[in-house]
Amino acid sequence: MPAERKPRNQNLTVPNALSVLRILIVPFFAWYFLKGKLTAAVSLLALSGLSDLFDGVIARKFNQVTELGKMLDPFADKLTQGVVAMCLAIKFPVICPVLLLFIAKEFAMLCCAVILLKEKKRPCSAKWYGKVATVMFYLSVGVIVVMDGFFHVRTWVFSIVANVLLILTAVMMIYSAIHYFQIFREIFHSDDEKYELDLPDEIRAKTVREKVRRKK
Fold this sequence. Notes:
single chain
């Protein structure tokens, strides 16, 4: 008789684990950064950035894309960006305008996602322009921290470099926000079944039963 394995939760994937890892890194980054332990803080931020880079690749290559993952990934991104931005704003007031823009953008996107979920519709997954905005954010943060925290560059060079990077990041954030809002409108007004989503059912996750033959 063939043996039947226990149901496997489809949400137990490497990409989802990497997203959870990024969420867990956030408080440790904040603690090290605010304590002035920049090497540890930057190392954790680099680890977070690398996990963000690879989770999508792994999900697509090994067919581990899940609806939960599509929500965990951007949540981990936004949580990381928000905490990093607030930590930087404490030490570098120059980042405050971008922080305010970030808060406004993410609050608007959160409201849109909540509206779609209440309508039992699927919020859109991360797009390339959102990922580019994230990469630019990490790059800007990294350069500012390295120039000020490690090399103590506080001349006009620092101001120019920091402002240019932050302005470019802000422009990319606005660009991605506009496109995400267009997608939100399309999903909200669409009757296409591909946008349907029952979140409680999805979190419980469908299970896959795999049958294996016993070795003779």
